[in-house]
Model the fold of this input.
Amino acid sequence: LARDGGHGESYGHEESFLVAMALLSAPFTVALAFGAAVLVGNALLRRDAIKVVFNVGTMLLAGGAGLLVVVAFGEKGGTGPVEASAVAVAAVVFFIVNGLSVSGVLALLGAGPFLRNLTDDLGGRALIWAGNTAIGLLAGLAGAAHTWTLPFGLVAMFALHFAFTGHIRARAEHQTLDDIVRSSSDGILSLDRRDRIVSWNPACEALTGHAAERVLGMTLSELLRLVGAERDTGAPLLELDRARTEPELFRIRGGAGELCWVALTHAPLPDGGRVVVLRDETSRRRLDELVAR
Done:
């Protein structure tokens, strides 16, 4: 998934490999194998050298922190409840350290605020982590008893990968749509089923002078009163005419305090809400008035 500034974040199955290897080998061996696997994987994907260094370093940092938990539990070896619990805790540590380090570096590179990077799709990432960890535990426990069962763990991992492909594709498509809306010169906002504003792009803020923090949660009627929306006749515009299919022209008090002419169009959304587009028609209106003279 791409972030601001051209940098991005990807989803993987590192926890599955880490957990399974931690149950089958000594921590030092796991760290070497894990680092080598990440290096080879990035090389096969032909990533830039700086990204390879970052990815390998991040994985080794998170993996090493997780393996320290295994060592702290005694590094006894075996596949009993204690060892399995230690590896599960190590996977939790890996998830936390990896999330913190990736979010921090992306923030330093200008790819979005740290907190937004950290919490973005946190539920989806946690679900993928849980699936990876469960498969790694099952593969490691089964492989320790019968080595020939390890390929079945790979099959389960591939099945998990394809199960979550739809989620990741939907996230990427949603992100693309968000990027288009954010870069639009027209003001675009969306309403939920109760007519409350749930999204507000930068062009809306530039046109009205009101930041998203102020208007989110308002109804459209409250917004129209806030900006002093008036029709040509001077009558206030207080609500959306849902039956109207043509753009509705009205004037508002803009961000700099001047009067602006706005054309409003709207369309229903599949979830029962509505998308509203606000186009600045001030220049065209003034030109029409000059021509009329």
Remarks:
- The CA atoms of residues 139 and 153 lie 5 Å apart.
- DSSP finds eleven helices and five strands in the chain.
